[in-house]
Design brief:
Elements (H helix, E strand, L loop, with lengths): L9 E8 L6 H9 L17 E7 L2 E7 L10 H12 L6 E7 L5 H8 L8 E6 L10 H11 L4 E4 L8 H11 L17 H16 L18
Parallel strand pairs: 1-3, 1-4, 4-5, 5-6
Antiparallel strand pairs: 2-3
Length: 226
Protein backbone atom coordinates (compact mmCIF):
# COMPACT_ATOMS: atom_id res chain seq x y z
CA UNK A 1 0.00 0.00 0.00
CA UNK A 2 1.45 3.37 -1.04
CA UNK A 3 2.28 5.93 1.62
CA UNK A 4 -0.25 8.73 1.98
CA UNK A 5 1.06 11.82 0.24
CA UNK A 6 1.43 14.90 2.43
CA UNK A 7 -0.50 17.99 1.31
CA UNK A 8 1.34 20.91 -0.28
CA UNK A 9 -0.29 23.29 2.20
CA UNK A 10 0.93 24.13 5.69
CA UNK A 11 -1.22 24.87 8.72
CA UNK A 12 -0.78 25.10 12.48
CA UNK A 13 -1.46 26.88 15.75
CA UNK A 14 0.49 29.71 17.41
CA UNK A 15 -0.18 30.86 21.00
CA UNK A 16 0.64 34.43 22.01
CA UNK A 17 1.31 34.69 25.75
CA UNK A 18 2.51 37.44 28.06
CA UNK A 19 1.64 39.54 31.08
CA UNK A 20 -1.22 42.05 30.81
CA UNK A 21 -0.79 45.08 28.57
CA UNK A 22 2.33 44.06 26.64
CA UNK A 23 0.66 44.33 23.23
CA UNK A 24 -0.56 40.78 22.52
CA UNK A 25 -3.80 41.93 20.90
CA UNK A 26 -2.03 44.64 18.89
CA UNK A 27 0.45 42.06 17.59
CA UNK A 28 -2.34 39.64 16.67
CA UNK A 29 -4.23 42.35 14.80
CA UNK A 30 -1.11 43.31 12.85
CA UNK A 31 -0.24 39.72 11.96
CA UNK A 32 -3.76 38.95 10.75
CA UNK A 33 -4.05 42.28 8.95
CA UNK A 34 -7.24 43.53 10.58
CA UNK A 35 -8.82 44.13 13.98
CA UNK A 36 -9.67 40.80 15.61
CA UNK A 37 -8.87 41.43 19.27
CA UNK A 38 -9.82 44.62 21.12
CA UNK A 39 -7.12 46.82 22.60
CA UNK A 40 -6.84 49.49 25.29
CA UNK A 41 -4.24 50.77 27.71
CA UNK A 42 -5.99 49.00 30.57
CA UNK A 43 -4.43 45.69 31.67
CA UNK A 44 -6.42 42.50 31.04
CA UNK A 45 -8.62 43.96 28.33
CA UNK A 46 -8.63 40.52 26.69
CA UNK A 47 -10.78 38.14 28.76
CA UNK A 48 -11.32 35.32 26.28
CA UNK A 49 -9.18 33.25 23.98
CA UNK A 50 -9.45 35.08 20.66
CA UNK A 51 -8.56 33.18 17.50
CA UNK A 52 -7.11 35.08 14.55
CA UNK A 53 -6.51 33.34 11.23
CA UNK A 54 -3.87 34.31 8.67
CA UNK A 55 -3.94 32.62 5.27
CA UNK A 56 -1.21 33.47 2.77
CA UNK A 57 -0.62 31.39 -0.36
CA UNK A 58 -0.22 27.78 0.83
CA UNK A 59 0.08 28.54 4.55
CA UNK A 60 -2.55 29.09 7.23
CA UNK A 61 -1.63 30.17 10.76
CA UNK A 62 -4.21 30.06 13.55
CA UNK A 63 -3.24 32.52 16.29
CA UNK A 64 -4.58 32.33 19.83
CA UNK A 65 -4.48 35.66 21.70
CA UNK A 66 -4.58 34.79 25.40
CA UNK A 67 -5.59 36.84 28.46
CA UNK A 68 -2.58 38.25 30.29
CA UNK A 69 -1.07 36.10 33.04
CA UNK A 70 -1.04 37.84 36.42
CA UNK A 71 0.62 37.18 39.79
CA UNK A 72 -2.41 38.34 41.78
CA UNK A 73 -4.93 35.48 41.85
CA UNK A 74 -7.11 36.89 44.64
CA UNK A 75 -9.70 38.06 42.13
CA UNK A 76 -11.85 35.36 40.55
CA UNK A 77 -11.38 37.03 37.16
CA UNK A 78 -7.59 36.88 37.49
CA UNK A 79 -7.73 33.16 38.28
CA UNK A 80 -9.99 32.53 35.29
CA UNK A 81 -7.74 34.49 32.95
CA UNK A 82 -4.60 32.70 34.13
CA UNK A 83 -6.26 29.33 33.49
CA UNK A 84 -7.43 30.48 30.07
CA UNK A 85 -3.92 31.63 29.18
CA UNK A 86 -2.36 28.39 30.40
CA UNK A 87 -4.77 26.18 28.48
CA UNK A 88 -3.80 27.96 25.25
CA UNK A 89 -0.32 26.41 25.45
CA UNK A 90 -1.67 22.92 24.84
CA UNK A 91 -1.43 21.41 21.36
CA UNK A 92 0.14 24.39 19.60
CA UNK A 93 3.02 24.35 17.12
CA UNK A 94 4.77 27.56 18.23
CA UNK A 95 4.54 29.80 21.30
CA UNK A 96 5.31 33.51 21.20
CA UNK A 97 6.34 34.83 24.62
CA UNK A 98 5.71 38.57 24.44
CA UNK A 99 7.43 41.04 26.76
CA UNK A 100 7.46 44.83 26.96
CA UNK A 101 10.88 46.07 25.89
CA UNK A 102 10.59 49.12 28.15
CA UNK A 103 10.05 47.28 31.45
CA UNK A 104 10.29 43.87 33.11
CA UNK A 105 8.85 42.60 36.40
CA UNK A 106 7.86 39.41 38.22
CA UNK A 107 4.85 38.91 35.94
CA UNK A 108 7.22 38.36 33.00
CA UNK A 109 9.02 35.71 35.03
CA UNK A 110 5.68 34.05 35.80
CA UNK A 111 4.90 33.80 32.09
CA UNK A 112 8.29 32.32 31.27
CA UNK A 113 8.16 29.83 34.14
CA UNK A 114 4.80 28.62 32.81
CA UNK A 115 6.56 27.70 29.57
CA UNK A 116 8.62 24.99 31.26
CA UNK A 117 6.10 22.27 30.41
CA UNK A 118 5.36 23.55 26.91
CA UNK A 119 5.98 20.98 24.21
CA UNK A 120 6.36 23.52 21.40
CA UNK A 121 9.27 25.77 20.40
CA UNK A 122 9.15 29.20 22.02
CA UNK A 123 10.23 32.49 20.46
CA UNK A 124 10.79 35.56 22.63
CA UNK A 125 9.13 38.67 21.18
CA UNK A 126 10.35 41.96 22.65
CA UNK A 127 7.67 44.55 21.90
CA UNK A 128 7.64 48.37 21.99
CA UNK A 129 11.28 48.73 20.92
CA UNK A 130 10.26 51.94 19.14
CA UNK A 131 10.01 53.53 22.59
CA UNK A 132 13.57 52.58 23.57
CA UNK A 133 16.14 55.33 22.98
CA UNK A 134 19.20 53.20 23.69
CA UNK A 135 18.90 49.73 22.17
CA UNK A 136 21.98 48.67 24.16
CA UNK A 137 19.87 48.85 27.32
CA UNK A 138 17.93 45.82 26.06
CA UNK A 139 20.90 43.47 26.34
CA UNK A 140 20.90 42.96 30.16
CA UNK A 141 17.17 42.25 30.15
CA UNK A 142 17.46 39.81 27.24
CA UNK A 143 20.27 37.99 29.02
CA UNK A 144 18.17 37.77 32.18
CA UNK A 145 15.16 36.34 30.34
CA UNK A 146 17.29 33.96 28.28
CA UNK A 147 18.73 32.58 31.51
CA UNK A 148 15.20 31.53 32.51
CA UNK A 149 14.34 29.75 29.25
CA UNK A 150 16.05 28.47 26.10
CA UNK A 151 14.25 30.49 23.44
CA UNK A 152 14.53 29.31 19.84
CA UNK A 153 14.55 32.85 18.45
CA UNK A 154 14.40 36.43 19.71
CA UNK A 155 12.48 39.11 17.79
CA UNK A 156 12.72 42.79 18.84
CA UNK A 157 9.78 44.60 17.20
CA UNK A 158 7.03 47.18 17.44
CA UNK A 159 3.57 45.64 17.09
CA UNK A 160 2.00 49.11 16.89
CA UNK A 161 4.20 50.40 14.07
CA UNK A 162 4.82 47.04 12.40
CA UNK A 163 8.61 47.21 12.74
CA UNK A 164 10.15 43.74 12.16
CA UNK A 165 6.72 42.06 12.24
CA UNK A 166 7.27 40.64 8.74
CA UNK A 167 10.40 38.83 9.97
CA UNK A 168 8.36 37.24 12.75
CA UNK A 169 5.63 36.27 10.29
CA UNK A 170 8.13 34.55 7.98
CA UNK A 171 9.57 32.61 10.93
CA UNK A 172 6.09 31.36 11.80
CA UNK A 173 5.31 30.42 8.20
CA UNK A 174 8.49 28.33 8.07
CA UNK A 175 7.54 26.58 11.35
CA UNK A 176 4.09 25.44 10.23
CA UNK A 177 3.76 21.68 9.57
CA UNK A 178 2.42 20.24 6.34
CA UNK A 179 -1.32 19.95 6.80
CA UNK A 180 -4.65 20.76 5.23
CA UNK A 181 -6.05 24.17 6.14
CA UNK A 182 -7.92 24.16 9.45
CA UNK A 183 -10.40 26.86 8.40
CA UNK A 184 -11.74 28.11 5.05
CA UNK A 185 -9.35 30.52 3.34
CA UNK A 186 -11.60 33.58 3.84
CA UNK A 187 -11.89 33.17 7.63
CA UNK A 188 -10.05 35.69 9.83
CA UNK A 189 -11.50 34.48 13.16
CA UNK A 190 -13.71 31.70 14.48
CA UNK A 191 -15.74 34.13 16.60
CA UNK A 192 -19.25 35.19 15.59
CA UNK A 193 -20.11 38.69 14.39
CA UNK A 194 -22.29 39.10 17.49
CA UNK A 195 -19.32 38.33 19.75
CA UNK A 196 -17.08 40.73 17.83
CA UNK A 197 -19.72 43.48 18.09
CA UNK A 198 -19.93 42.98 21.86
CA UNK A 199 -16.14 43.15 22.16
CA UNK A 200 -15.96 46.39 20.18
CA UNK A 201 -18.55 47.96 22.48
CA UNK A 202 -16.56 46.78 25.51
CA UNK A 203 -13.40 48.30 24.01
CA UNK A 204 -15.09 51.69 23.79
CA UNK A 205 -16.25 51.38 27.41
CA UNK A 206 -12.71 50.53 28.55
CA UNK A 207 -11.37 53.63 26.81
CA UNK A 208 -14.06 55.96 28.13
CA UNK A 209 -13.96 54.94 31.79
CA UNK A 210 -10.78 56.84 32.60
CA UNK A 211 -8.79 55.43 35.50
CA UNK A 212 -11.59 53.16 36.65
CA UNK A 213 -10.73 49.52 35.93
CA UNK A 214 -14.04 47.93 34.88
CA UNK A 215 -13.48 44.31 35.90
CA UNK A 216 -17.24 43.74 36.11
CA UNK A 217 -18.08 45.20 32.69
CA UNK A 218 -19.96 42.77 30.45
CA UNK A 219 -21.68 43.55 27.15
CA UNK A 220 -24.77 41.62 26.08
CA UNK A 221 -25.86 42.14 22.47
CA UNK A 222 -29.64 41.74 22.39
CA UNK A 223 -30.12 42.58 18.72
CA UNK A 224 -27.66 42.55 15.84
CA UNK A 225 -28.31 43.61 12.24
CA UNK A 226 -25.96 43.64 9.25
Amino acid sequence: MADKQLPDSRSGYVAIVGKPNVGKSTLLNHLVGQKISITSRKPQTTRHRITGILTEAQTQIVFVDTPGMHQDEKRTLNRYMNRAAGSSLQDVDVILALVDGTSWNEDDELVIKNLASAGAPVALVVNKVDKIVSKESLLPHLQELSALFDFEQVFPLSALKGTNVDELKQYLIDKMPQSEFIYPEDYVTDRSMRFMAAELVREKLMRQLGNELPYATTVNVEQYEV
